[in-house]
Amino acid sequence: MTEYHADLILTGELLIDGLGAPPVSPGMVAIAGRQILYAGSASAAPPLSGARRIDLGKACLLPGLIDMHVHPTYYWEEPDAATYTYEPEGSLVYSPVLIALLAAGNLREALMAGVTTARDTGAIDSIMFDVKRAVEKRWIPGPRLYVAGRLIVPTGGHVHYLPGLANQADGPYGFRRAVREEIRAGADFIKIANNGADLTQEELNAAVEEAHRLGKKVACHTSKPPSQRMAIEAGVDTFEHGTPTPEEIDLAVEKGITWTPTLNISQEYLRWCESRWKAAEEGPIGGDRRREIERAKWRREWEETSAYLERKRTSMEYALRAGLRLAVGTDSWMGQVRFSAIADELRWLVEYGCSPLQAIQAATAWPAQAMGWSEIGTLEPGKLADVIAVEGDPLRDIRAMEKVVLVVQEGEVVKSPSH
Ligand SMILES: [Zn+2]
After folding, report:
1. How far is the CA of 190 from the centre of ligand 1 (A)?
2. What local confidence, expressed as pLDDT, does residue 259 receive?
3. pTM value?
4. What's the pLDDT tens digit per position in 2-14?
5. From the CA of 157, how far away is ligand 1's center (Å)?
6. Containing structural domain, residue 80
7. What's the CATH number where 81 sits?
8. Using a CB cutoff of 8 Å and minimum separation of 24, what contacts does 134-140 make?
9. Helices in 242-324 by DSSP H: which ranges?
C-alpha cells in the first residue's frame, strides 16, 4: 500500500465534514502543505508518514467557519451612529489608521473563534482592501477576506449620510458604473443596499447583470419589503436580513439564492432597546421631558424589533420547509456586541428551527457554494486546510461551538490546545 506524506495529522472523537453527512468517529484530518490530503474516519485512513500529530481527544473536527456578513471597521459605540460621522472640521472622528487597527483587533478575535473566512459587506472607502492585503501578507492574523468596498445605494439611500460608506448612483447606467468603480477599487463581490424600495427594479437588475457579467457575485441588504422580492427577482446571490414571504422563499429556492438572516444582531439590538428604555424609566418621574422622550423612543424601537423578529421566525420556519439555503452572518456593528459572535448566530439558527447540522452547513458548505468558493467550506481532499476543533459534540449542544480549541488556516496552526 502506498504511504502518503502528511505535514499535520489531526485526530478527534468526532468529525463533521460540512456536507451534511452524519459525523464519523473517531475522526482524522491529514494535511499536506496548504491542502487536505485525507478527511474522514481515522480507522479508514491510508498509511501516513512523517507528520506532526495533534490529538484533540474528545473534541469535534469541523471545517473552518465562514462568516458571510461582517463589518470589522464599524465603530458605532451606540446604535444611533452618532460616533460614525464627521467632526465639525470635516474630518472623520476616527482616522483611517485607527479604523484599520480596530479592524485588525476584530479580525483576530474572529479567527480565534474559528472564523477562517469572512465576507466584508461594506466599509469606508478603501480601508478594507488594505486590511485584506495585511492579512494576506500575514502581517496581522485574521480570516481570509472577501471584500465589497463601499455599499452601492441610490442617491439619498441607506447610510448615504455616513462618510465614505456609500457609493451613490442613479439610473441603470449609473448603477453599472458604480459596480465597475467598486470592482476597479478591488471589490471581490458587490454589495447593494435597498431599504424597502429606495431604488428601482430596473436599477437593481442592471447592477446585478453588470456584476455577473464581470464575474462577481452580489449581496443585497434587504431589511424591509419589497426589497427581498426585488433582490430575488433581480437574481442576487445572497440577500441579507429581512423577513421573506413564502412566495419570495419559493422563488429564491428556484433560483438557487441564499439567505443571510442575521438573527443575533437583531436579538442584541432588542436587548439594547430594552436596557435603554428601562434606564430611562428608572430616572426621575415627571418633569424630565427628555427622559420621557427617550423612554418612548426605545420602547417603540423595542416593539418594532420584537415584531420584526416574530416575522423572521415565521420566515425561517417556511424557509427550512422549502429548503432555502441559509448562511451565517453576524453583522456585529454595535460596540457592545462581540465581533466573534458566530457561535451566537449558530445558537440562534438552532433556536429558530435549524438542526445543529444545518446550522453548521450554513457556516461552512452553503456560503461557499453561494459564493462559488470551491476551495473551502468542507473537509475533503484537495480543499484548503481550514480546520477547527470544538470541545464536545455540537450536534448534541450547539453551544459547543463557543469552545474552539484549535484553528488551522491553510495548513498553519494558528490556535491549538497548547497555545
Ligand atoms: Zn451589514
Report:
1. 13
2. 98
3. 0.95
4. 889 999 999 999 9
5. 14
6. 65-259+323-371
7. 3.20.20.140
8. 134/100, 134/104, 135/107, 140/104, 140/107, 140/108
9. 246-255, 263-281, 289-322
